[in-house]
Structure formats: C-alpha cells, structure tokens
Amino acid sequence: MRCCPPYGRVHLRRWVWALLALPLLTGCGNTGGQAVDALTLEAFEDPTSMVRPEQVHLKVASLERLKGERPNLGSSESAHWIRVSGWQGAPRNVRILLDNPTLDSIDAFVLDGPRVLKTASAGAAYGRQEDLIPTFNLPVNEDHALWFRVRSTKPVLLPFVLTQTDKAEMLRERRDLAVALYTGMVLAILIYNCFLAFSTGQRAYFSYTFVVLTVGLVQWGFNGYDRLLWGSSPWMAVNGLTVMGACSGLAALTFARHFLEVRRYTPKWNRLIRVLLGIYWAALLAALAGLPIVAYNLVNLGALSAPAMLVLSIVSWRRGHPSAPWYFVAWLIFLIAVTMQALRDFGLLASTPITATFMPIGTVLEMLLLSFALGNRINVLKRSSDQANAKALAASLENERIVKEQNAELEARVRERTDELAKANAGLSGALEELKGAQDQLIQTEKLASLGQMTAGIAHELNNPINYVQSNATSLRRDLEELIEIIEAHAAALSSLAEGAPGAEEMVGRARERARQLDLNFLVEESRQLIKGILEGADRTARIVGGLRVFGRMDGDQLVEASLAELLEASITVLGNRARSKANIEVTFDEEAPPLWCQSGKLSQVFMNIIMNAVQATETRWPESEDRKVDVQLNGVSAQAGEFTALEVRIRDNGTGMDDLTRQRIFDPFYTTKDVGMGTGLGLSIVKGILDDHGADVTVESTPDVGTCFVLTFPLAAENAAASKVA
Amino acid sequence: MAEEIIRVLYLDDEEPNLFSFKAAFRREFEVHTCDEPHKAVRLLDEHNFHVVLSDQRMPRISGVEFFELIMPDHPDVSRILVTGYADTDAVVDAINKGQVYRFVSKPWNEEELRGVIRSGYDLNRSRVRNAEQGTEVLALLEGLGAQLGGCADELEGGGAAAAGAVAEKLREMKVQLAGEHARYERWIQRSSN
Lengths: 727, 193
Description:
The complex is a heterodimer.
Chain A: H1 7-18, E1 40-46, E2 64-66, E3 79-85, E4 94-98, E5 105-112, E6 115-122, E7 135-137, E8 145-151, E9 160-164, H2 165-200, H3 203-222, H4 227-230, H5 234-259, H6 262-265, H7 269-288, H8 292-302, H9 305-318, H10 324-345, H11 353-499, H12 504-518, H13 520-551, E10 560-562, H14 564-575, H15 577-580, E11 584-589, E12 596-598, H16 600-621, E13 629-640, E14 643-653, H17 660-665, H18 683-693, E15 697-703, E16 707-715, H19 716-726
Parallel strand pairs in A: 11-13
Antiparallel strand pairs in A: 1-2, 1-3, 3-8, 4-7, 4-9, 5-6, 5-8, 10-12, 13-14, 14-16, 15-16
Helix pairs in contact in A: 2-3, 2-11, 3-5, 3-11, 5-7, 5-8, 7-8, 9-10, 10-11, 11-12, 11-13, 13-14, 14-16, 16-18
Chain B: E1 7-11, H1 15-25, E2 30-34, H2 37-46, E3 51-55, H3 63-70, E4 78-83, H4 88-97, E5 102-105, H5 110-158, H6 160-192
Parallel strand pairs in B: 1-2, 1-3, 3-4, 4-5
Helix pairs in contact in B: 5-6
C-alpha cells in the first residue's frame, strides 16, 4: 500500500474537524515519509548476539528479504541484523527513520565489507528523548552497506522509512503534540475520576483511576514516552512496557470486578478473574525475575481477559446489571482498538495514519465511556439510594408513628399500673395500719393478761387475810360478848356476896356454871388467837400493798431506784399461789446487791412473765408438784471487791427445756409453743423490749428435759447514766 | 327434824383461815379443819361429814381437783368451794359437772356461809334418805317376790285344799303393800316440799 506524503496533514486536519473531542493522533505510523517499499530490508537472526559488525558481511548469504511495510520479526532474545538498501539515490536531506520506540536497542552501522565506517545507536535502552523516533543519516558513499542491529524483547516491528529531515522533525513535533493531547485527556479523566473516587469513596472509582493511569502509561510506553519517567534505567527500558501492561491488566480486571459487581451478579466469573489476575501477577514476577520475554508473553496471554471481560459484561447485562451495557460498549471499543493494533502489527491491516490512531482513540473512548458508565452507575446507585432513603424515610416515619402509638399505649398502661400500684399501696398502708393496730391490741392484750394475772394473784392474796381479819373480828365480838356475860355474872355474884344478899351463893354457882358452859379458858385462848390472826392478816395485807407500791405503775416510764430483790419478791407474791402452789420457788438474794434505777412496774412484768413461764415448764414436765423446782437468784457482779458493775438475775427451772430452734425464737413476736388462745406469743418479745430499754443483756440456756435458765444482766453504769439523764 | 349435829370439814392451806372458820362456826356445827388434802381424805373416811368446804387455791391441788378426788368414795357429802378469787371458768365447769354444790367467795359473809352449810347439810340428808328409802323399797320388793314364790309352790302341791290358805296369804300381802304405799306417798310428799 502506498501512503501519500501529505496524507498525515490532511488527516490531522480531518481529525481536528471530525473528532474535535478526540484529537488523539499519536502519529504513530504517520511517518509522512517515503513509501517503505522503496527500501529493501533483508535480515538474519543472531540468536546468541555473538555476531560482530565486522563479521556481518560474511552472513549475507543467510539474509532473508523482509516483506510488508511493517515487517514483524516477533519477540525473542535474539539480535536481528537488517541490511537496508534501496536508499541509494535519495536526496541529501533524506534520512532513514525507524518509528518504533519500543525497541530496546537499535544500532546502525555503515559497513564497507569488514570495516565499520560509522555507528549510531538509539532505542529504549539508550533512554534519550531524541531517540523517540530514531533517525539515521544515510551513508555518503552509496556503495557502502547500511546495517541495523535490533534487539528487543517486544515485537521487533521494523517500520523503516525514508524521510526528509524537516519532516522527521515535524513528525516528532506532531507526535509530541498528539501525546500531549492524549496525556492531557488522560490526565483530565484521571483527575476527574480521582476527585470522584475520593468524593464518592466508591471502590470502582479508585480502581478506575488506576485503569486510566496504567492505560495512559501503556500508551506512553508504546510511544516511548515512558522513558521520560524513568530515564535511562536499563531494566525499565526493557520491562517498563511489560510492567505497565501487567499493571493496566490488573487495574482493568480489578475495575471490572468492582464495576460489574462480579460477586453479586456473576459470582462464578470471579474465579476466572482471579486466574487472569494471576497471569498478570506472574508477568510482574517474571519481569522481576529477569525473564522479560516470558513476562511479555504472559501479559499478552493476559490479554485474553479483554474478550473475557466483554463476555462477562454481556452476562452481567443479561443478569440485569444496570451499568453493564456501558461497560460492554466501552470494552468493545477497546477490544476493537486492540484488535486493530494487533492486525496492524502483524501486517494484516494497512499501516495507515487512521489505523495508527485506533489504539489511542479506542483507549480514550473506552476511558470516557467508562467514566460515563461510572457516572451512570453512581446515578443508579444514587437513585436506588434515594429510593432506599425514601423507603427508609417512609419506614422511619411509619416507625415513628408506631412508636408514638406504642408510647401512648405504654403511657396509658403505665398510668393504669401506677394507679393500680397507688391503690395497692393505699391498701397496703391500710393493712399496715390495721396490723399496727392489731399489734398494739395484742401488746395491750398481753399487758392486760399480765394485769389479769396480777389482779388474780393480788385478789387472792388480799382476800385471804381480809377474810380472816373480818371473820376473826366477828368471832372475837361473839367471844367478847360471852366473856362479858361471864364477867358480868361473876361481877353480879361478887357484889351480891359482898352485900350478903340472899341467894348470893347461888349466883356465884350460876356464874361458875356459865363460865364452865362457855369454856372460859377456851374463850380466852380463842380470843387471843383471833386477835393474833387479825394482826397477822393486817400485817400481810400491808405487805402485799407494799409490794404493789414497789411495782409502781404497770406501764409507767418513770425511772425509780428500786431493789431488784424487793421487785422479785413482790413479783412472786403477786403471782402468789398461782405460782407458789404449782412449784417450789426458791429465792436466793445477794443482800449486798445495790438498788437499780429502773422502770419498776415493767421490770416486775418481766420477772412475773419469766417466773410464770418457768412454773408452767415444770408443770408440763412433772406430774407431782414436789418435783417442780424454780430457782430465783439475784447476784451482784463486781469487777473488784465492793464495787458492783452489774446485777444478775438468774431464773432457773427444771422444766421441759427447749431445743435450740425454739430457744432462738422465743423472743420473736407471736412465737408461742402454747395452744391457740393460751398465749399471745408476745410475752417474751415484750420482755425483750423492756430489757433492751434497760440496756440489759439476756441469755437463755436450755436443754430439753433438763431445764431452762434465764440470765438477765443489768449493767449498773448504764442505769446510773440513765438515772443521771432523768435527774 | 334435824336434831343431829352437823359435821363440817374445812380444807384450806392457810391456817389463819382455818382458825377463823372454827371460831365462827364451832358453836353450831361440829367443825373439823385441815390444811393438807391427804389429811382431809383420811378425816373424810373417819368421820361421816355432812358438808365439806375447800379453798380453791392451794399448793399442789385445787379445790375442784380435791372434790373430784373424793367424789367416788363420798358421793353424798355436800361440797362447797371457797375461794379468794374466782377462776370463773374452772368454777362454772365444776358446778356444772356436779362436783361442787355451792361456791362461796372470800371474805365470806358468816350468815350466808352458815345458810349454805345448812342447806348443804339438808341436801346431804335428803341424799342419804333417798338412798335409804331406795334400799328399803328394794328389800320390800324382794320379800314380796319370795312370798309370791311360796304361794305358787303351795298351790302346786296342795291342790284345791290349799287354795284357801293361799288366798289368805295374798290378802295379807295386799294389806302390807297398801301400808307401804301410804308410807312412800308420805315420804314423796315430804321430799317434794
């Protein structure tokens, strides 16, 4: 195919006109130079790179003619020697140009047989910017041979052309412009997407920025501009494009994964993507391991991902991915571009400026479309999130309504419960009041019971002496009358005798007879006894009343100084026969025990209660009253001689005794071992209360079938303190 | 009628009471006093008392318990409870059960107590008489039964000749019965007065 020299310019204009948004001509292949077939290329392969320029003329026999305007020798470790001819007769300002910036090294030799007349070098390995489109001067002597030695791990494409010097410059400028435009485009897309990536935080945007970056860099690499980035690094010179390609593959696959939401729509494809990613990683590793050709071929193998992604996008599309069509179109364009490039590289497609633009235009279109796709996707997401928001709003409004209703219901319920609780509380307060009332009543009952006990005792104790005082008085009066009668009879008889009246002797006899009849001696004795009884009765009455005075008021709170011995005695007296007739009560009092400041009435209640309990316990155990024993003791407790610190009252019985359980509970209110109606169960709890008021300590020792001993200890110091308080 | 002297036993644990009682009633009654229940039981066995008085509150034994104790052996004696303070329930119970004839509270009213003792004596007498009469009636009925048996024997052995003698005997028995009848009628009349 022939390509007209002004073609490029015309085309450039046309692109500007036609593709205003895509002025992306790389000029790659748009050499603007003479038709390639003007040159004759013959080549031989030097697999070991051992052939030196001086030896080349010997290899002429192995030269093979290269065909096509873009001969492709494939990629290998070999060096290729190319003899270029057909340039003879060209004007002086014509130079030879090899427009393939991906070649690792290009060495030009002007040879005259074994003699090397001139050398020049270019290629990626040399890293010089001016070599992006290497140009070489033609030999001055047209008999000399022009040889090139080309080495590249990338496909050895050899688009040799003849071109005028100024046109080569123009070509370079145009190339720079195109790459700059392309770069600007890519940068614009990159920055835009970078911005979007950070503002949306979408993973697809991040991976897309990498896609844009790497694709852009690959395009730079194709045009040799990558060496601007890493200068003369030989490793990068050789591997840069491969690494860029692998990176772009990785980025593209990752992006596809994110963009097409592979996990969600096509989970099975994820495995394929992983395999493809593996290929690219292997390529990177191979490059690092110094296997550039393996790496390059792996990247080429990875290119399988392009059709794979296309199919994937179709599958996603069919499965309802909303943005899959965009991706499909973008990827299709990219794939077409790549295919065109490949066809061109293999000479199956004419290397025209149009075909040269396919790749960059394709990539830019792809990038743009993918940008739009991403935008669309974001919109879709936004729409769905708007819908979701609307739904969520509706749901939350509904929730709010429900919550409000529930709140109202709860409040109502709470109010109801509160009312119920208030009612229950009122009821309980009432019940508590009633209980308190009942308790007060019980305490009163207990008080009355002990009062009744006391009254019974006192009544009996008092009525006996009163009885015989009264009865004796009556008897005494009668005796007295009889005595007076006797005395009068005797007196009358005596006076008759004295007067010597008749019958005086008779009167004396009658008086004597009367005295005998009335048993004078007996009368005298009886009278004495009666008087003795009266005195005794009076004395006993006085003693009982005295005992009562010791008690003081039953529920009086006043502190009085009282002798505990007297109180105990009075208590026993007042219990009277009721206790004494039932058991043998022995009393032992320490006579030195000092008086105690106390509420005497209450203490006598305590003593009566405990003594009565003791008597009842013995009654239950012993059928014969002779066996029942209650021992009441009063002892002074002194730390040192003559100084009492406490008084101790021991009330011991030989009654039934208690087990530990009962013993522990005896002071509990309402606890009673008596039959229903026999005791309130409050006696000992009241006792405890009274003892507590006196600061007295009470211990109870008890063994079943042995007996019980109450030990009451009244501290004197505390009582004195209480006394001083009252005072 | 009662020309017999009334024998009274008074049981109380308090000696002054015993003395007062004796001093008060020795002129009318034969008064025995005692301060120990077991001594009282012995005295009851020795003397045929008409009336027994006991204090309710005594050591070891109550008056009611004492009465309960002596009832089986001396059912006819009139039992009077004397007490300084009324254990109402116990006393009511005792009276209802018939263990106690009367209840007298201390200090006693001498006249009242005298009346109570006398009516107690009357009760005792009527009880005794009732028992005696009952014994008499039983003996009479037994004698009549024996006589009727003799008549039957005679009739069986003697034939027609004996009938006259049997008829004579039956007529005598009728007269005897009529006499007894009149006697009992009088007694019943007297008792119900």
